[in-house]
Write a structure and sequence with these properties.
Length: about 150
Amino acid sequence: MLTLAVIFFAVIEFAAPEVLEINDTLFDVLISAAAIPVEAVIFAAFGTTPFKALLKVRVRNRDGSKLGFKRALVRSFSVWLRGQGIGIPIATLVANIIAHRRLTDQGVTSWDANHGFTVSHRTVDAWRVILLVAIAAGLTALGVVGAEGSF
C-alpha cells in the first residue's frame, strides 16, 4: 500500500500539483485509501502483491484458494483501518503497535483471524532482502525529493 501511495504521489505531483496543497494528513489518508482497490486488483489478478512475493509471503482463503477481488478488498480495507490507522500519523503508530503485539502473541493479525485468511511464509533469500532494502531506500529518496519540491 505504501508503495502505491508513493506512486500515486508522484503521478499527482506531475499531473495536478495543486492537489498537493491540501492538508498533509488528509492527503495521506486519501492516497492510502485510494491504494486499497488497486491492491485488491493486484491480489485478485496475481494471488499476491509484489512485495509479498518478494518476501515469500502468501495470503490465502482458509481453503487455500487465492483471494478474489471482494475478499482482497475486505483484507486491504481491514489492513488500512486496523493495521495502518487509516494513515493518520498517531493512529498509525498505535495501530502498528497493537497489530504487532497481536501477531507476536497470537501468531495472527486481527484482520486475518476475523476474515478467515491464512498467511504463510518461507525462508527469504539474502538477495531478496537486499533488493527490498534497495527498493525501500529508493522510495524513501523519492519521497524526500518530492517533499522538498524538487521532484
